[in-house]
Amino acid sequence: MNTRRMIFFVYLSIMLLTVPAWADGEGSGGERGHRHREEGHVVEQSRAKDAKGRRDDGHDHNETSAKSAAHRRKEEKKGGKEEAGHGHDGEEALMLDEQARQMINLRLARVEKKALKGRLKVFGRIAKDTANYSYARIDGEGVVERITTDLGRVVDPGEVLLVVRRSDGSLEEVKAPIHGIVLSIFVRPRDRVDSLTSLVSIMDVDVLRATIDIYEQDLRFVKEGQKVLLRVSAYPEKVFEGTVRYISPQVDEKTQSIKVRVDVDNKEHLLKLGMFIYGDLLYGAKDHAVVVVPDSAIQELNGESIVFVSENDRLEVREVTIGRKVDGYTEIRDGLEAGEYVVTQGSFYLKSEKAKASFGGGHSH
Predict the structure, then answer these.
(1) How many structural domains compose the chain?
(2) Residue range of the domain that includes 247
(3) Residues 123 and 230 in one domain
(4) Integer distance in angstroms from the first to the last C-alpha of the chain?
(5) Most buried of 141, 143, 188, 329, CB within 10 angstroms?
(6) How far is C-alpha 58 from the chain's CA centre?
């Protein structure tokens, strides 16, 4: 019963509201048309007056906007004398007192110009041999008396590897010719050997050869002597330094890449022959320095890259156009000048405050 009564009252209300629209018939429609013509006449008079005002002033909307933009640029060049609490674009700046700055451990960094080096991603393998490889032999003939070394042992030049008894009964020590790891032992005690017999092989793995692939479009970045920073999956946090030693004059027909030889430092003997490697080839800096800030200064808000610029007690939000990221620095192509100061530590907190303000959450003071 209650539901029916409610529906009835709603229906009645609708009817009462719509009665003026149709109950008066033709006479009411005439009055409405008269009022409409009068209102249209007033609107037309108002528009004409506005147009006359613009002609009298000699300005149009575009000219006014241009002058406003020019005025803003002029004010910015005067040293940013905008009303306190507002940035270049008229947005309200964030205001933090000293206590608030200490609470978020706010830190600033000076915008500077640096020559950033480029990085080229590279992939390749450690070679299955090394350039420094040697065999231990004897002059003449004899019988192996005993072996004094082991496979995998690191030896230095002059270290005794085995002892051979000569035909006259004398003993001769066979020594390591180079520094390296004992890779193979080819004989056993009581074996007869001569000057053609390879007794022990030694490989110097302090420096290993690696081959990386460079594609044609990147060849202009590669020169002999350049540094290469390499990694392997076995030690993902470890960086191995290498140097470009040779660039092949041929293009591989299958991969359309150029083979580049890199000598890799391996004094800790962590790298193994045949390992897969990846990393960055560092090529020369640009001819001129670019404006850069630490990576931590860059935040993203509403799909735009922003920084917080410190101006006296204000922290102004500034949109920037970013470029390359190299060694902890980000290139700024537009939006900042060298000498300004930006927030590095604490910038994420400021972004959160700015985001809340955009949604009506207010500002932090």
Answers:
(1) 3
(2) 119-128+206-283
(3) yes
(4) 58
(5) 329
(6) 52
Write out pLDDT tens, residues 24-39. 444 444 444 444 444 4
Of 232, 226, 237, 326, nearest in space to 281 by CA: 226
Q: What share of the chain is helix, strand, coil (3-state, %, to 5)?
A: 25, 35, 35
Query: Which segments of 4-117 are extended strands (E)?
Result: 94-95, 108-110, 112-114
Given 262, 283, 304, the domain boundary residue is: 283
Tally the C-alpha atoms within 13 A of residue 302's C-alpha that lie toward its C-beta: 10
From residue 91, alpha-carbon distances to 336, 354, 356 in Å are: 17, 11, 14
272 shares its domain with 143:
no
Residues in the chain, overall count = 365
Verify that 211 and 199 share a domain, yes or no: no
**pTM of the predicted model as reported, rounded to 2 decimal places:** 0.49
Containing H/E element for 361? Answer: none
Residues 123 and 219 both lie in one domain: yes
Give a yes or no: residue 257 inside a domain: yes
On whether the CB atoms of residues 328 and 334 are closer than 8 A, the answer is no
